[in-house]
Amino acid sequence: MSVQSEVGQADMLVGSINEPDVSDYIQLMKPRVMTLVILTALAAMIAAPGPIHPVMGLIAIFAIAVGAGASGALNMWYDADIDARMARTAARPLPRGRVTPDQALSFGIILSIGSVLTLGVLINWAAGALLALTIAFYIFIYTMWLKRLTPHNIVIGGAAGAFPPMIGWAAVTGSVGIESILLFLIIFMWTPPHFWALALYRCRDYERVGVPMLPVVAGLAETRRQILIYSVLLVPLAIVPYFIGLGGLTYLAFSVVLGAGFLWLAVKVYLTTEGREADTVARQLFWFSILYLYLLFAVLLVEASVHRIMA
Predict the structure, then answer these.
(1) 5 pLDDT more than 90
(2) 20 to 30 A Cα–Cα from 237, which one of 23, 86, 213, 227?
(3) Of 134, 129, 81, which Cα lies nearest the Cα of 104?
């Protein structure tokens, strides 16, 4: 075998190792975030007044999920430099060299345009416009501007993650109702304590890459205080859907019990200030906050589904 052919085979082998596969593109779309987007949008869609054909509903949810995935891919494209230096994100496709920046950018743009056009053309343009706003807000306002500029990045930028219920509602009604605004506000108020709990025990990561998360800029004590404040505001707000007829008795029970657990952990985070125990409690709040939001919207979805079946 010639030297040239050996080199050629080696080049082909290297190319095959670095060639992205389906799992790499799935990772770019942040599938764990997508599941929450799907749940919150679907719950609002089922709870919204008015009929929607099952096929149209599936198309709407698919488009919303793809739009969320597009946001994730574009976020990873822009943040590849800091992702490579943070322990939590170093295994993502771009830092590992599984996907090139151009591939991630092209993938994100194609998904963005495709998801917005699909939702706008096949469902309605109110929902399509809201999805476009969500993607643009997440990329341009949060990722490119606020994230590296201000400790309030997650407060303002968190609005992007709160839009899916409004999109799901608009997919059915063609408009934004007070009920979907309430669901938006619940996620909006949930986002700061959720991410600041993560930032408490990942503070060194953010400090290393120069991202001004609240613990880095204002300190751990102030972050714990803000977590408690936002938690106190969130819990009663999450009970309100029952009082406007959006949630039933089951939702009321879950929102009260889960809210009590959320507040208990937020108080523990506020009071626990030393060493590994502080990190442990912050980690507990972070993971419980995910369960909290999942269960609230899952119960809302089940109640709304039963109501539609019985109607």
Answers:
(1) no
(2) 213
(3) 81
